[in-house]
């Protein structure tokens, strides 16, 4: 990956920006978490990380635009950085070790670079379109498990989504057919667990573009497939935030994925 970092400026600067902002995450000092909407916490750390990342990126790429979870959209350009400063704020606030910083570089609507950093283990996942996926510099690939009954899946949901029949059907299928399901606080990090074979797959509905932009590229570059719950895998569709990520063999066994 060293050569890739040398030759790909958005990757290099993106990694530097995330690395630098991670020091704010590690300080873990904030004045109280606020509810920004029902069941959604935010801290001043979320804002500070987003601002720090934007400062670093703007210095190198003054014309690029941003879509950040906390500060919204800024600028107009075909080159856009998607930022989730803390994915898994609830876990962060409750001192659970499963949050991440997610950053993606998107050009003309196409995911080009994806970076997810897990501060608690100092692990960085990164991918460049067409150039593979990496964990702390080493190339990674999705699990080669083909047997559903031996597969472990990550899942996620937002509270207002639990009554969704699509989600219930999918969860029932996984609970019945797989070895087990796990739910951690960061969707972006769970996508990376699907990318490096820790999980055999991951699914979630209704995520934000900043949640999925980096992690889905990392899964695909690790040889996995990502679709929505109707089997679509276009860029536009993935940005809608419904994701089923796994390897090709298990993907064919996901009976709940129903083409619309
Ligand atoms: C949340 C996390 C969580 C997912 C929620 C997201 P946030 O992001 O990704 O895993 O289940 O739907 O909103 O709010 O912590 O950035
Ligand atoms: Ca998030
Ligand atoms: Ca967030």
UniProtKB/TrEMBL annotation:
Cofactor(s) essential for the protein: Mg(2+)
Molecular function terms, GO-annotated: fructose 1,6-bisphosphate 1-phosphatase activity; inositol monophosphate phosphatase activity; metal ion binding
Alphabetical keyword list: Carbohydrate metabolism, Hydrolase, Magnesium, Metal-binding
Pfam family, one: Inositol_P
Catalysed transformations (reactions): a myo-inositol phosphate + H2O = myo-inositol + phosphate; beta-D-fructose 1,6-bisphosphate + H2O = beta-D-fructose 6-phosphate + phosphate
Keyword Metal-binding annotated: yes
Binding site for Mg(2+): 69, 84, 86-87, 211
Family: Belongs to the inositol monophosphatase superfamily. FBPase class 4 family.
Protein name listed in UniProt: Inositol monophosphatase family protein
Organism, as annotated: Halosimplex aquaticum
């Amino acid at each position: 990956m060293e050569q890739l970092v040398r030759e790909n400026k958005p990757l290099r600067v993106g990694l530097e920006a995330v690395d630098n902002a991670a020091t704010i995450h590690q300080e873990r000092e904030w004045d109280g978490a606020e509810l920004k909407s029902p069941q959604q916490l935010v801290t001043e750390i979320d804002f500070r990380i987003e601002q720090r990342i934007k400062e670093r990126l703007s210095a190198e790429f003054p014309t690029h635009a941003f879509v950040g979870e906390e500060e919204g959209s800024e600028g107009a350009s075909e080159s856009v950085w998607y930022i989730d400063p803390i994915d898994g704020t609830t876990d962060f606030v409750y001192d659970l070790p499963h949050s991440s910083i997610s950053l993606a570089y998107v050009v003309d609507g196409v995911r080009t670079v994806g970076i997810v950093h897990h501060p608690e283990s100092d692990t960085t996942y990164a991918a460049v379109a067409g150039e593979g996926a990496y964990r702390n510099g080493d190339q990674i690939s999705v699990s080669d498990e083909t047997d559903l009954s031996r597969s472990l899946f990550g899942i996620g949901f937002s509270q207002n989504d639990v009554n969704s029949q699509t989600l219930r059907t999918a969860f029932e299928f996984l609970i019945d057919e797989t070895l087990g399901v796990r739910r951690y606080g960061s969707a972006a990090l769970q996508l990376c667990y699907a990318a490096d074979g820790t999980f055999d797959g991951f699914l979630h509905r209704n995520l934000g573009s900043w949640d999925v932009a980096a992690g889905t590229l990392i899964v695909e570059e690790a040889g996995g497939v990502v679709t929505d719950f109707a089997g679509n895998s276009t860029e536009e569709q993935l940005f809608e935030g419904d994701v089923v990520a796994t390897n090709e063999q298990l993907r064919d066994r996901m009976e709940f994925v129903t083409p619309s």
